[in-house]
Amino acid sequence: MRLLEDGKAWTLLTSLDELKGFEESIGSRRPHGEAYSRDFRGPNWLDKRKAAAGFTERDPVVLIVGGGHAGLSIAARLRQLGVEALIVDRHPRVGDNWRRRYHALTLHNQVHVNHLPYLPFPANWPTYIPKDKLAGWFEAYCEIMELDYWTGTEFSGGSYDERAARWTVELRQAGGTRTLHPRHVVLAAGVSTLPRKPEIPGLADFRGRVLHSHEYDEATSWRGRDAIVIGTGNSGHDIAQDLYSNGARVTLVQRSPTLILNIEPSAQLVYALYGEGIPTEDCDLITTANPLALQRQYHRIVAAQSRAMDRELTDRLARVGFRNDEEDRLGWQFKYLERGGGYYFNVGCSDLIAERKIRLEQFSGLAGFGAGGAQTRSGEVIPAELVVLATGYLGQEHLVRRLFGDAVADRVGPVWGFDEAEQELRNMWMPTRQPGLWFNAGSFAQCRIYSKVLALQIKAREAGLI
Ligand SMILES: Cc1cc2nc3c(=O)[nH]c(=O)nc-3n(C[C@H](O)[C@H](O)[C@H](O)COP(=O)(O)OP(=O)(O)OC[C@H]3O[C@@H](n4cnc5c(N)ncnc54)[C@H](O)[C@@H]3O)c2cc1C
Fold first, then answer.
1. Most exposed residue of 17, 265, 366, 388, measured as fewest CB within 10 angstroms of its CB?
2. How far apart are the CA of 111 and the centre of ligand 1, in A?
3. How many degrees, rounded to 5, is the angle at CA 117 between CA 131 and CA 153?
4. Considering only CA atoms, which residue is closest to atom 12 of ligand 1?
5. Is the pLDDT of residue 37 over 70?
6. Which phi and psi angles does 413 have, rounded to 5°?
7. What is the residue with the minimal CA distance to atom 10 of ligand 1?
8. How many angstroms separate the alpha carbon of residue 23 from the centre of ligand 1?
9. How far apart, in whole angstroms, are the C-alpha atoms of residue 197 and residue 200?
């Protein structure tokens, strides 16, 4: 509750926090461990872990598709509630979702807001975590939290049996296919799922390499060569900077106005509460206990502050023709919540553009592509051996359609973003119109916070409470 000075309540939050009789097995309710140590002939802890993870004679209650932080956080929550969950991921190694990204990547938000549930990052960790360090943490997290995780496993789809109230799902592995019958499927495959590849005039004739941003992972082979990056969100800027820093000649192509913020301080303002002082759980409660209308008001104020802070940078950018999103009123976080992107946290690329070290072109100024690169409307050829499409991703509903077919996708509808009447993001962490299908995705903070309510809702069903 937030109280006004006169004692009246301004906002009131009610939230599912715990199921009486089914509390998490943590702290004073931790497992005793006797079972592993008193019977010297019986299986020990490791034997039991290995047997449990194989799921040879039984099905997991929950199948989690995707083992990034979204998958890990819901798996950890379910485990404490005694719900058997299996994560599957197509990558060969836990953490590969970060390991395979570009060489110079560090997280954009500070360490304090990015903790996974139950196990905070150590206090000596850097403020901005490098990708490979994070990938290693994911592996350790799985081991420490005893999560069942099958790597090298592609979830290729499934169908739901209403009467049996369970799924039949197909899992592809190197050695063949496994069929399982979980009662719940949690899609934790990312907010951005399938790459969006727009039709670009003439690109089919281009003789160089075309990569979507999700396929781009290294710059050194492009040293001394020409590259064009299309798209000015975070990925486009970061890839352009990565290529430039490794000796490529880079042109960045802007399609639409993009909100530019310096990574510090403006991009961090919305997380100002998180730091070395207040416990993470308290910060989580304070930041999520606002109704949506109030949240918008708060973000409007913060967005105006950061616009003023970044004015010097956006003026410099305007001088070279970069179109900052001057229409924006709610700031980067609402762009993320409403459309999953449309902003860039400047870690140096904006300066390279302003200094004309990275060439900027407007998409509207290009006539199209040809064999050797792009052509401007004035007839100049911009040579290229590489074109990177940093053109974003399709939403989760597209993945639902691909994995479960039209009937399920039509029933569930759009995922993520707000609809007029709702307080919450569409279909996220709540029962969907498809029984047994759930979604966990978003930032580290969102997955940490909302995986708890999602796990409790699944547990409540499994315990027969609803
Ligand atoms: C440079 C950069 C900095 C960022 N910094 C931050 C930050 O500081 N804080 C923050 O909160 N966020 C940050 N993000 C954004 C975001 O958190 C990440 O993009 C993150 O990867 C999302 O995690 P996820 O688990 O939801 O999805 P993903 O990381 O996309 O993982 C999904 C997993 O699902 C698997 N998968 C998908 N489909 C299938 C299938 N059919 N079968 C099997 N496996 C499948 C994939 O292999 C993948 O491993 C940053 C992103 C970038 C690029």
1. 17
2. 16
3. 60
4. 443
5. no
6. 80, -165
7. 443
8. 30
9. 9
309-312 contacts: CB < 8 A, separation 24 or more? Answer: 309/262, 309/265, 309/266, 310/260, 310/261, 310/262, 310/266, 310/346
**Tokens describing residue 442:** 């978003």
What does DSSP assign to residue 88? E
State residue 2 phi and psi, 5-degree precision. Answer: -105, 130
C-alpha 191 to ligand 1 mean position (Å): 8
| Residue nearest atom 27 of ligand 1, based on CA coordinates | 190
Return the SS3 of 157.
strand
pLDDT, the chain, mean: 95
Q: Supply the residue whose CA is at minimum distance from atom 26 of ligand 1.
A: 190
pLDDT of 223-237, one tens digit each? Answer: 999 999 999 999 999
441 lines ligand 1 (CB under 6 A): yes
| Calpha distance 325→68 (Å, rounded) | 31
Distance 176 CA to ligand 1 centre (A): 26
Q: What percent of the chain has pLDDT over 70?
A: 99
User: Residue 84 has which token pair?
Assistant: 């058997």
| Nearest atom, ligand 1, residue 69 CA | 25
Per-residue pLDDT reduced to its tens digit, 394-445: 999 999 999 999 999 999 999 999 987 778 999 999 999 999 999 999 999 9
Residue nearest atom 9 in ligand 1 by C-alpha distance: 109
Report the separation in Å between the CA atom of 394 and the middle of ligand 1, taken as the mean of its atom positions: 14
CA 320 to ligand 1 centroid distance, Å:
33
Would you say residue 103 has pLDDT above 90? no
Of the pLDDT bands very low, low, confident and very high (cuts 50, 70, 90), residue 40 is confident
CA dist., res. 269 & res. 120, Å (int)? 21
Decide: helix, strand or coil at residue 172.
strand
